Amino acid sequence: MSIATARAGVAKLRQMLTSSRRTVVFTGAGISTESGIPDFRSPGGIWSKYRPIDFQDFMTSEAARRESWRRKFATHETVAGAEPNHGHLAIAELVRRGTVSAVITQNIDGLHQASGVRKDRVIELHGNTTYAHCLNCRREYDLDPIRKAFLANQTLPVCGACGGLIKTATVSFGQAMPEAEMRRSKEEALACDLFLAIGSSLVVYPAAGFPALAKDSGATLVIVNREPTGLDDLADLVINAEIGPALGAATDTSR
Ligand code: NAD
Question: Can you tell me the distance from the alpha carbon of 167 to that of 137, in angstroms, rounded to the nearest whole number?
Answer without folding.
Answer: 12
